[in-house]
Amino acid sequence: xxxxxxxxxxxxxxxxxxxxxxxxxxxxxxxxxxxxxxxxxxxxxxxxxxxxxxxxxxxxxxxxxxxxxxxxxxxxxxxxxxxxxxxxxxxxxxxxxxxxxxxxxxxxxxxxxxxxxxxxxxxxxxxxxxxxxxxxxxxxxxxxxxxxxxxxxxxxxxxxxxxxxxxxxxxxxxxxxxxxxxxxxxxxxx
Length: 190
What we know:
Layout: H1 5-51, H2 70-104, H3 119-152, H4 160-189
Protein name: Maternal effect embryo arrest protein
Keywords: Membrane, Transmembrane, Transmembrane helix
Transmembrane segments: 35-55, 76-101, 121-145, 166-189
């Protein structure tokens, strides 16, 4: 039977929307992959920081008054655990979203990247994952301040090396987080 021009155009528009949806889903999967990979790198940094939390760490500071005490080591441990927890939360949310896209919502198992998923759920999950990554970064930065105090002397003593290290780290990490948050908000709203 010959198809009418309207039915051909409707089918063409439907196919075009499906292709756009499939491309969007690929972008989400790629973004989630990137988030999980970055969180993995940060998790390694957490474990490196934990190795520096032992009480016998030597400081490069000569003045005994400026050496970090046990309280700084305790704060380091708390910040590292919080950082790890937020990165793990972020990664698990992202992996859950990938699972939903790749396995649960795909109509054709051969086309796992072309899944149909509730965009609201996807956006909320990605927002939660991004918030987890940001919080993990903030706690990782706080734990690095503790590492700097343990190795270079407390900030209270105004050790030049410690102050410079903390200042540069704060400037760079905060700048990167501002870019990341701005990009995430832009993507979330558009």
